[in-house]
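Appendix C reproduces, verbatim, an entry submitted by the partner laboratory led by Prof. M.T., so that reviewers can inspect both the input and the predicted structure.
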Amino acid sequence: MKSTIISTAKTLGFALVGVTAAEPVDGVTHLQCAIEENRIGAMAWLARNPEARCDPRSLLTGAKSVICCALGYGEDGIEIKSSPLLCKEGMGEVDRAGSTPPILPLQRGGEKDRRARFARGADYHLVVREKLEQLWDAIRQHAPDARAKLCVDSSPIMEKALAARAGLGWIGGHTLLLNRELGSWFVLGEIITDIEIESDAPVDNQCGDCRACIDACPTKALLAPRMLDARRCISYLTIERGCESRVTSHESRYSYGCDLCQEACPHNRTR
């Protein structure tokens, strides 16, 4: 099963794949602290049942494993190759839990340069979702009675913490997942399943005492390593709140999202 998962995920284009047990992650204290200090801004959904958000089993009763996948992207975002579904702007997809993932319009033309890299190409929610569906179809051929919950950003789950525990990387100072080979230029997707699969080992944090990402943030949204005040973050202001007018022209190099902390990271400089 493990070899099938890895080989299929790689064939589908995932750059990284790892497995961890469907047990709670050690993130509830960090999340509760951010909530109490109001560092989550208007993202009230983060405050709804933090314990459940840290436990994959809250999304799938009887879950035993979480398959974590990472899809890399370049300066033009995620490129699509053949799927008609993913080529249609404004096309949404309802997942098995009945929720609709947020939609990012496909970007063309000069305006893409004012968007974070991830938002310059196809909607990654749809791209990753389709790949996860295909991966799950391959798994079901070996375990036809298995159950799963597929997650791509919109599900209430601590995906970075799970991916770190699955060995895909470590949480960097900018709060994003970092991989030694890929840096942080990738998006995540997960399959929570009731199949018991051998877990991968996490990797050590390799940031050391580097503060490049913290020093690069023009709004001082990074208060300390892995501590973000969303209310100051350009990504939050331009995506979650749609408040670009609150960001000065000097600070707003981007109109949708922000890559400044990632661009400053030594692990990303050569990519």
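The two ends are 33 Å apart (CA to CA). Additional entries are available on request from the coordinating office.
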